[in-house]
Amino acid sequence: MIVVIMKIKIINYDHIKESEINDRIIRVKAVMMNSKKEILLAEAYTTIQFPGGHLEEGETLDEGLKREVLEETGIILNDEYKPFFALKYFLKDYPVQGNNRSIEIYYYYIYTDEPYNLDNIYLDDQERNGNFKLSYVPLKKLKKYLLKNPGNLEINKIVTNEMLLAIRYLKKSGVLK
């Protein structure tokens, strides 16, 4: 098992205090690599992401990770995982006036040769309607592949930058070579 110390990057342009947050969203993302040094990516509505999603009420990070990976890839995770990287956004008046939102995204590194299993996935309506698909991309080509992600949507630029930050940290820590 590889242990990486978690790094946290906080983005708080509005200088919001933790005590001012009245809306919190927590997500988990899995950077899944196999022995061929390929990274598993999920795509829906032309947005490419690492498998993962929102925590459900009362879930721990580890429980949410295992559920999301199973739902999106059909892969059952049995080990306990710890996040290696987290992004925390503090957004004033988002998405409406008076709502101060915190968005926390926890990234996990999972090394597995277990292939994804489309017969064992549980997609929500949004994923089904967005032509959800999975694909492996060689680590060497990942940055170029992500930067080709349709650039006309602002969300794609944000998600791509987040993914590249996570990969950069894994490389810097010596996990990915």
- Please identify the oligomeric state: single chain
Question: Helical stretch count?
Answer: 4
Report the biggest beta sheet as strand number plus sense, adding barrel if it closes. 5 strands, mixed
Could you tell me the number of beta strands? 8
- Mind telling me the C-alpha Rg? 16 Å
The fraction of residues in strands falls at 25-35%
Strand arrangement, largest sheet? 1-6-7-2-5
Q: What is the overall silhouette? A: globular
Assigned CATH superfamily? Nucleoside Triphosphate Pyrophosphohydrolase
Task: Summarize the structure in words.
- The protein is α/β, with parallel strands linked by helices and 177 residues long.
- It has one domain (7-172): Alpha-Beta Complex (Nucleoside Triphosphate Pyrophosphohydrolase).
- The chain is 26% helix and 30% strand.
- The chain contains four helices and eight strands, in the order βββββαββαβαα.
- It has helices spanning 61-73, 125-129, 139-147, 154-172; strands at 7-11, 23-33, 38-44, 47-49, 52-54, 85-91, 101-111, 133-138.
- The strands form two sheets. A five-stranded mixed beta sheet has the order 1-6-7-2-5, sandwiched between helices. Strands 4-3-8 form a three-stranded antiparallel beta sheet.
- The protein is globular.
- The two termini are 16 Å apart.
- The model has no long low-confidence stretch (mean pLDDT 90).
